[in-house]
Each structure stands twice: as C-alpha cells, then as structure tokens.
Amino acid sequence: MGVKAMRIYRVKDYEQLSKVAANRIAAQVTLKPDSVLGVATGSTPVGMYENLVKMYEGGDLDFSQVTTINLDEYKGLGKESSQSYAYYMEEKLFSKVNLNRKRTFVPDGTEPDSEKACQAYNEVLHRVGPADIQVLGIGHDGHIGFNEPADYFPDETHCVALDEMTIQANKRFFESEAEVPGESYTMGIGTIMRAKSILLLVSGAEKAGILKKALYGPVTPGVPASILQFHPDVTVIADEEALKEIE
Ligand code: F6R
Fold this sequence. Notes:
Distance between the termini: 20 Å
Bound molecules: fructose -6-phosphate
Number of strands: 10
Shape: globular
Strand content: 15-25%
C-alpha cells in the first residue's frame, strides 16, 4: 500500500480545485443517491460547497437521500454562534440544498460534558457510518479534523485541546484570539480511516511544507495526516502552490 495508493490531482488554482472537488462529490451522490458524505469546514472546502449548491440549483444534483457527518465542532459553540461549524454548514450547504436535516450530523458543541458529547457522536457514527467519502482539509501542523499532533492516533470521537498553531490559524474567524475556543470535539483518526474513500483538499503555498511531510514523510501521529498513506483509496486535490515542494 503506502503512498502509491494515492491519486494526486494537480490543479491550477483554488477555483479549479473547488470545481474538481465538487465534481467528485457530485459523481458520488449521482451514482449512490443515499451516500454518506463526511464533510469538513474551514476555508478550503468553501468553493466546493458553492459549486455543489450551483449544481443543485441547476437541477443536476439531488441530496434528498444523502447523510452528512461532520468532522468536528468547537466545544462551547452551538449553531446560533456564527463561528460554530454547525452554523457554517447551515450557511454553506444545509440551507441551500434539499438535504433532510434529520440526516445531517455535527458533534454537539453545546454539550458541556465531553464524555457525553463524544459518546453521543460515536453512536451516530456507528449507526450511519462509515462515510462513503470523507472530505478533509489539512492544518498547518498536519491535523485532520481537529486531531492535533500527538503521540498516538486517537480512534474515535474525543475532546482535544487546540494547539497554539491552530488557534493562531483560526483566530481570523473570531473577533479576537481570546474568543477562539480552546477545545473541540473531533471525529477520531480511526473513524476517518474507516471511510471508504478520502478526498483531501489542499490549497496555497503555506500548506506546501506540511503536505509534503504528510504524503512523503514518515507515518507518525506527530503529523496526523501522514496516516492517510495507509488508506487504500485517497484522492488528493491540490493546487500548484500547495504542490510546489513535491516533484
Ligand atoms: C475542519 C477541519 C480542519 C480543517 C483544517 C484546514 O472541519 O477539520 O482540519 O480542514 O484546519 O483548515 P483551512 O481549510 O481553513 O485551511
């Protein structure tokens, strides 16, 4: 297996990345209308969601039987908070296509008891999973979901303290750094690896170094995304900037 099981699609720029990613998801939903889509938030998939909404509006996509499972949510934030991932999904996708809300799942950030929140989400994932396709972005420190560098690969949903690097990267979405929640609930690496296929989206020069490490460096929990080298069906869609340290 190893890195050879990965397909790397080199695209020109973010616009093209967004179209290719949307086409991959559209193909999935068209061929299997009751697909389980593992979905991500952050800046990278925004353009993909825009393209999916356009396809839906044009009558080319039907989400009525689709289930979505989100990777993560900030602990302490609920869908009424504009920085929450539940709000993000509502704004970018859920409210704009014909998804059945009963089949959209995000960890419950408003549950203060971490154990309860994680257990509840694991029950959902056991019931509806595994994902047919899991969309991922990559953090500057190599995180996937909010699985930060660690000394082991966490299996299922857990509560994590966000790294300084992640807080710095995500503060752009908040009024001030102090408002970035210090913890989040995230799907575990084991669950991500049990997805039938993985779609990793990477854009921009500032991700070039970590992308190279993740795809070609040693597989280590110090670079959580490196575990993807062991997944049998990974598609990486990356733009020229993100791939500038590879080849
Ligand atoms: C988001 C998520 C994160 C992001 C990563 C990259 O649900 O799980 O792992 O994918 O932090 O974020 P962006 O795309 O904003 O660079």
